[in-house]
Amino acid sequence: MTPAASGEAPAVPHRLIGARVPLVDASLKVTGRAEYTDDLRRPNLLVGRILKSVHPHARIRKIDVTEARKVPGVAAVLTGDRYPRTFGVLPMTHDETALAVDRVRYIGEGVVAVAAVDEETCERAFARIRVEYEPLPVYDDPKVSRNPVAVKIHERALRDTNLQKEVFQHFGDLPGAWRAAAHSVRVSARYAGVTHAFTEPHAVLAEYSPDGRLTVWSATQVPHYLHRALSEVLDLPMHRIRVIKPEVGGGFGGKSDPFPHEIACAALAMETGRPVKIVFDRDDVFYTNHGRHPTWNTVGIAADALGRFTALDVEALLDGGAWSSFGTVTTYYNGVLAMGPYQFPNFRYHGARAYTNHPPSGAMRAHGGTNIRYSVEVAVDMLAEEMGWDPTELRLRNFLPPHSTTVNEFRITSNSVRQCLLAARERSGWREKFRALPYGQGIGIACGFYISGSNSPIHFTPKFPQCTVHLKVDMDGGVTVHCGAADIGQGSKTILAQVVGEVLGIPLDRIRIAAVDSDTAPIDIGSYSSRVTFMMGNAAKRAAEDLRRQLVQAASDLTGYARESLECGGDRIYVRHRPQVGVSFLEAVHRAMEHTGALHASGSYESAPMGGTFKGARAGTAPAYSFSAYAAEVEVDVETGFVRVRKVWAGFDCGRPLNPQSVEGQIEGSIHMGLGQLLSESLNYRGPRLMNPSLLDYKIVMPQDMPEVECLLVGEDDPEGPFGAKEAGEGPLIPVLPAVGNALYDALGVRFLDLPITPDKVLRALEEKERREGRLSKPAPPAVMPVPAGGTDHAPR
Amino acid sequence: MHLDEFQLHQPESLPEAISLAREFAGQFDYLAGGTDLLPNYKMHLNPRPHLISLDAIPELHRFSPDQGDLGAMVRLREMEGSAGLASRYPAVAQAAREVATPLVRASGTLGGNLLVETRCFFFNQSYFWRQSLGFCLKADGDRCHVVPQKEKCYATFSGDLAPALMALDARVRLMGPEGTREIPLTDLYPRDGDGIRRTSLRAGEVLEGVTLPPPVQGLRSIYLKLRVRPSYDFPELGVAVALCQDGGRVSHLRVALGGLEMVPRRMDALTDPLVGSQLTGESLRALGEAIRSAVRPVHNTFLAPDYRRKMTAVLVRRAVRSLTEGS
Amino acid sequence: MLREDLGLTGSKRGCDLGTCGCCTVLLDGVPTLSCLTLAKLAEGREITTIEGIAPPGGLHPVQKAFVEKGATQCGFCTPGFIMTAVAFLRDHPSPTREEISRAVSGNLCRCTGYVKILDAIEAASRAMAREGASSA
Ligand SMILES: Cc1cc2nc3c(=O)[nH]c(=O)nc-3n(C[C@H](O)[C@H](O)[C@H](O)COP(=O)(O)OP(=O)(O)OC[C@H]3O[C@@H](n4cnc5c(N)ncnc54)[C@H](O)[C@@H]3O)c2cc1C
Ligand code: SF4
User: Fold this and answer.
1) CA gap A7, A716 in Å, rounded
2) For A356-409, what is each residue's pLDDT tens digit?
């Protein structure tokens, strides 16, 4: 399905934009030539390893490393007191240190860093380190942490509790709306923590040269934050630090904080004067975590007699683990992203995030929008059932219209959620299937939305753009693109090349995407919050347009035709109405460089001011939002409780898909990750202890269990997105969980409110239902079914 | 992750292997495909200073499913791809197909699978992890985290092939410093054993191979495996059934289970009484329930024990039913 | 060993325990986990890594299909998948989609949801059949 054309024909005919362009670095990846951090070699390289805390919560009385220093082959042994300055991804909540200082707060926290000739020598040194711990009370339950506690995990915790952050928001009159409601539901659900499980373990290589410069190569999503944190903790000015991002083997949010091991590695390099590399073992990756928060939430929705939503009431409690990380943002998101594609005139949110002695939670794909969306979409389904409505109809009645404002002052621009829902409903055969499939089989639907780039950059420097792109052209006619945005596999380099190529009308092989290197790349605030296509795309487009202006002027000088009559395309600049007249791209370049020898251009993106003035008003605001509606069909083995998802129809609005193949890849990958969280993945804690820090016991979905996926890209061009595009990196994950959850209800008549929904839980629920009701049966079909295909649906309000 | 230093020996004959075993008594492990042993060594789970690789011993690689004669070093990949094995001993071919992943099966062997280390989520963890909790009986420690009262290890036998082979009356050939013997596979796993004393192998004994009796006329067999994902995961339960019917009456029935307790076992006491009878929905249900109440899984694997017991009844029923249908 | 001593860094190190498949190489033509293979036991046997399957300056049909179908995103698992797929297609020239997903079920991918990987292997099998037919 193609996006509907919008308004006038674009100034430049789309040639690269909208094409299924393979990733520009794919040939390097398929030949094993792409270089990841662990592939880098330096002469005289040392291996760095970190001794981890075996205690979940303890005071460090003493660390004795004298014997470890004597082990032959050991070059440096570093403890936390050497660099005690705190850091963290959010400027307001710095509570991490490179290595534990005075206290450890989770099992796996770094205590001592060693650099030595090899791993075995590091281990030998570890065996000679004596750490005296004094155990402290262990907090492994946020429900305990939210109350007054004997020992605060961090001094900065609120009041006398272990809460890291609390949010209260109230818009309109919730109690009044609740009293007046004709229908209402309330859902409480529990979500296990899940983690990114990218295939490349964290890795960092650092080198300190005699001229006082530090170079750090790291598998990071946000080179800029790492750059800042290194500077702050190591007390080196930023201009003496160079951060380079090699290929990154997946991030999904798990490589977006600056990490202690990165700083420790740099410190070891400074200490030894030799390059040091730290590569994590897989279990270290699990202890480092920063995955999705274990969550308890409650959602109440009220509606009037006509089926219009009147109120949304949300509570969320998050297990933040030992550090703040992105937690303040997460706490906001779990409320403000609840409203989503629907209109609610009254809204209340109470959210809290607690410190515990678990490994830190952080940002994970569809950060803050996933768990709450499951609860909301299940609640909408329940409300539809209570009212006797078809759930698609109830949703259609309540969608936010395009170009509107939410009660908490989110500015909504393009919004094709209605088209998403209609497409998913139509393609899935909803009418024939809903409540009509045999027992054990079912279909469900759910919607979602997500920010297309957080409007408020984390490091907020006023009047500083969120992204800048430099283009440099030389005699050879190659266009080099310098950009700080990190390609972590999502394909942002390819988007850059497509955008620049499109504007300049040149083939992709003229374009070189320079590695992200802080010495040459302008600052970008990183690959998170699905901001890259939107913000980087706009910056790149502006840079390319600036360059185009210079080249068109040169072509005009050469041809004598006015600039306005010239067009770029086919590696030429030609006269629009006489295409045979023109100059080659290279001729224009050479002309433009005459007497200067240089040709470069820059572009940047800064989002417009938006959001209300209340506390926390910026959280969740974005220059655009993606929208979605998925239908899913499931089949359950009612004797064993195993769930098979047969097919997902993914209606998605990412504006104009710049590269449909990439968008599909994001949707398919998101479905994989979402189904994992829904059905099998969980960080299993027993008390403070993670029971499954391995890829054998952390159960990501296998190829045999992937459903068929039909992508329905039905968005319209977004007015502010580059070529009309919006995000497709995170939003696609959100609706799959509730779509399948609702399908399970259709199949079995059971609501699953404790994720992951493992087979044993399914079976237990069925047994309970049978005990209660005397039999197993499907829920009754609704009174209000959708009108037949081709008919009209309810008009928007 | 690194391996502690060890010395690798590569004998080219069984006598040579056994003399090495004698020389390094108590100081070595045999190494077959290494897919079980090497991960355990990397986690510092009872590593030994000597490894005796069995790879270079030609006769251990023999594979004659038509004679029911399988060398211990036969790769699972070869077993799953064998039409001969699949037609004569379907349960065994199916079980081989269900082990781990295709990549693991490329290296993993029959012998290694029968002798695979028992598993427990307090045991299959890095040294660091175990250090943090306190070491357990099975490696470096003196208590059990699963059943703390007892001085016994409850680690779960998690091999797939054993139940399949047991259901088909396989025997194993063992060679050691004290000579050669052949015992029923069921006897390889002592009933009074535990997660540590898990086989009846004598010091230095090599599992040389497996022999399967020729399938009697009309014998059918099947292996069903319970696990969270269709690949990677060890069995949370494995059910093998061999059945022969004669004019609607059971003439031979074996049910063997793995993935549940410290050793795999065959449920002859519960199946023998059915020989001579007609299988009905009722008798099948009763068999399932009887087996369910006879097994005692503990909570040291991914899925909870009560669920695994329930599934025992379900999979036994399904396995038998699928053999009776179609016949 | 491959990575450190021979500098063949195409095979990746994702877990060291046989649980991800990123380190897959061909050992005498059979896809094998290098993390669970002792170098000494591979002596005298033929090891093929991702660096060794393409004709000079070109791409193997499986590599080509991975590029064209968008089967690589972050790329870290890609060499492992490709080694598995190359051997699989050699032995099963016209597999069903189900057979393909079983065949790659020892390789983890966290980006693609496997969909485009399966697409690519299917496409490669067709391309190789065509090539085989035209060169025969
Ligand atoms: C990710 C992963 C998933 C797995 N999933 C499964 C699964 O689902 N089901 C399953 O059954 N297994 C599974 N395994 C375990 C293992 O791969 C298989 O059991 C395999 O068959 C073991 O064979 P091997 O030759 O590699 O054994 P090795 O590792 O070489 O040996 C295993 C043990 O047996 C001993 N041994 C081996 N051969 C002999 C012999 N001939 N004589 C005496 N002693 C011997 C060794 O000393 C060692 O103690 C998995 C492994 C991994 C890494
Ligand atoms: S059952 Fe007990 S003794 Fe055995 S491995 Fe598990 S914790 Fe250790």
Assistant:
1) 10
2) 999 999 999 999 999 999 999 999 999 999 999 999 999 999 999 999 999 999
Cis peptide before A756 (omega within 30 of 0): yes
**Integer Cα distance of A527 and A534 in angstroms:** 11
Of A31, A279, A695, the CB nearest to C108: A695
Q: Pocket of ligand 2, candidates B118, B121, B123, B263: which has the most ligand atoms within 8 Å of its Cβ, to mutate?
A: B123
pLDDT of residue A795: 38
Q: Decide: A283 and A693 in contact? Cβ < 8 Å.
A: yes
Q: Tell me which fold the domain C54-134 belongs to.
A: DNA polymerase; domain 1 (1.10.150)
Would you tell me how many other CB atoms lie within 10 Å of the CB of residue A391? Answer: 26
**Which ligand sits nearest to residue B299's alpha carbon?**
2
Quote the pTM value.
Answer: 0.96
DSSP 8-state secondary structure symbol assigned to residue A774:
S
- List CB contacts (< 8 A) between A119 and chain B: 2
C-alpha A655/C-alpha B115 separation (Å) is 57
Mean pLDDT score of chain B: 96
CB neighbours of residue B218 within 10 Å: 12
Mean per-residue pLDDT, A90-100: 95
Predicted pLDDT at A486: 84
Q: What tens digit of pLDDT does each residue of C86-125 get?
A: 999 999 999 999 999 999 999 999 999 999 999 999 999 9
Reduced to 3 states (helix: H, G, I; strand: E, B; else coil), residue A237 is coil
Note the pLDDT tens digit of each residue in B46-59: 999 999 999 999 99
Which positions in chain A touch B2 (Cβ < 8 Å)?
119-120, 123
Q: Is the pLDDT of residue A12 over 60?
A: no
For chain A, give every domain's residue range.
Answer: 26-34+457-605, 399-455+617-784
pLDDT number for residue C46: 93
DSSP A522: P
Chain A hits for C74, Cβ within 8 Å: 198-200, 247-251, 488-489
Mention the CATH class of domain A399-455+617-784.
alpha beta
Taking the CA of B154 as reference, the closest ligand is: 2
User: Looking at chain C, which subunits does it touch, using at least 3 CB pairs closer than 8 Å as the criterion?
Assistant: A, B
Question: A198, C17: Cβ pair inside 8 Å?
Answer: no
Q: Give tens-digit pLDDT for A444-454.
A: 999 999 999 88
Identify the residue among C22, C33, C47, C73 best suited for mutation to test binding to A, counting A beta carbons within 10 A and taking the highest: C73
- Does A399-455+617-784 match A26-34+457-605 at the fold level? yes
Instruction: Give me the percent of chain A exceeding a pLDDT of 90.
Output: 88
Q: Is C7 on the interface with A (CB under 8 A)?
A: yes
Least confident of B28-32, B36-40, B189-193: B189-193
Q: CA-CA distance, A255 to A245, in Å (whole number)?
A: 11
Find the CB nearest C105 among B1, B34, B230.
Answer: B230
CATH code for residues B1-52: 3.30.43.10
What tokens does A551 get? 């080249």
| Angle, CA A684 vertex, CA A284 and CA B260 arms, to 5° | 110
Instruction: Give residue A528's pLDDT.
Output: 67
Q: Of B229, B304, B318, which has the smallest distance from its Cβ to A705's Cβ?
A: B229
pLDDT at A785 over 80: no
| pLDDT tens figures, A695-704 | 999 999 999 9
Q: In what helix (H) or strand (E) does residue A40 lie, and over which residues does it extend?
A: none
The answer to whether A48 and A123 have CB atoms below 8 angstroms apart is: no
Q: What is the CATH number of domain A26-34+457-605?
A: 3.30.365.10
pLDDT of residue A463: 67
Does A380 contact chain B (CB < 8 Å)? no
In CATH, what class is B220-325?
Answer: alpha beta
C39: which chain B residues are within 8 Å (Cβ-Cβ)? none
Residues of chain B with CATH 3.30.43.10: 1-52
